[in-house]
């Protein structure tokens, strides 16, 4: 009996071991083939680009279900979305019932895990979404969802989300939402007709905007909801639930139901416990700063509901959000003053129908800050088709007293803001230039304004006045000091209302002058990408971007402007800013010991690599200073470092720019010419080598007169046309190229002096190779010897010819030798 038991246990142990071994080994046998199959079938189904680093299968992770995981998965669209990544996921895992592999009814997916994932959903202005990536079914008679149901049966019991970020950008509807670092768990029996869904979710940052109006700004969101889900009928009824927005805790009552056209709903917001302090928590600056110690008072009423049908972007349900604040105040106990007499009446409503029927009203928004009253009233109707707006702002803000009501810490703020303005009308009036039908009057004044932030240069505006009229916004002469930099502005802006309301093009004239402007102060110190190209979908730090909806004509004048290592003085010219490009016309300045006149264009619209296409006319520029200040010269013409003297000339250049606004050297295209009247070649290594070869030490200190060089820049090399370099009595004719790798590839001829022994040698071939730090000069010594022998034979022949005693036989031998040397040439 004992023997039988032992044998049975042994067999069971071996069997269990084999099973466990198979569970570990089998996935490795199939996952390579499965990964290939997924990619092949995915490309058949998707009108998009997608890939993943690895596909893993585990039979133990969610046993008895098999886990199929994709790691480092990404999905991009095509056409207008080819540069936009729809999904980028660290891990996507699905738990599939093992037994469903052995039937013909498809695969049961019971759990989905999403980790470290980013989703960027976009709707273009014409309504095309970037998530429409499925190719049409080749069998028109078989609905796509019916085919999918034959393959997969979703019996989902749990959805787990770990670190999910979602951006929704509806450019047609004007809706934007940004949700960051979402953690969520959703459970229920989604394979049945009816279930209770338990949803728990939390995100530290949620931002929502509609029509350019911020509804939520980086708000912390938490939800704990039980939803009675009628999956067969498509109706979802809210049971016990809790929503928290920062410090505001809310409850939702009602239901939502799917329809063929969209969705029906009846939702009501329950906010019995909301006070003014909780309302203030929606302001990020207040919620983040000693919020627990904040003292508040006042009456708050908040009501909201949505009732009716939603059908895409064409119809919204009846909804209303009503906020009323009466006689409220807040104050930090540690500070001497507070904000008092806060009265707000805000209403957003739509009777049901098109989104354009939405009405927004904030009337009034009044408060008193440290004894200074301020009042704002605003209404907006027809916000989508033709915004009908009215805005008034009146009051005074003493910015120096802000520190008495709010803890500024490392910030200093001073100055007086006085507002007395009224704006009203329709956007169409602006577009049709019906300015007489609009209301626009008043002014906004800034006096003695100063802002000091930690690790930032102080900003100082002594005085500035904005004057409003229906046609234009006038900015009177204003001087802004930023650290040691100063800017004086005098401008007039047209279509400022269209720019503010719908982002249409802002037009204007702008006069800008400065005594000292250091552009390096306004660029990032992060130069880690100094030699890398800027990707098309990346806005690199340090790049000066040009907005595409600005059309300015600027007259610029500056006494001193610093950029990178360059110092420009006494500059002036015309700048045309349009379509993300700055067109520079006759921009002249002094630099590098001489003067430069520039004509060209700098293009740097959003999300594109900046480019420079410009022509430079240069006069009396120092070789050494050009090398010191310009990275382009350091890499393509390092010989400038050792040259003493000045040059003049012209340069046409076309190049993309990197993250530090420097040319991408491998992609530079250009051509030009330079000339010099007085150039010292002392210390130039290849000249020293030539002097040693021809045994003429004085050439090492020679000065060159009238040097003219034409050159072309292409594919990382500078190629010069043949040019003459006169070294005392010697003349070199050179042509060739130099490269980014510092290599030299020149050929030429050196002509010996016209008198003396060397004059007998004539012209000799030469080469210059190696690198700038280690050049190699070669002179054709065989050619040199032939020339010397030929000259000697010629002399001997002439002597014999004059010698009456010379024999004809000797002269014949000499002539044959001369012919032989000529043939060898």
TrEMBL record:
Residues 6-184 form the AsmA domain. GO terms for biological process: regulation of protein targeting to membrane. Transmembrane segments: none annotated. This is AsmA domain-containing protein. It holds the Pfam family AsmA. Coiled coil: none annotated. GO terms for cellular component: plasma membrane. Signal peptide: none annotated.
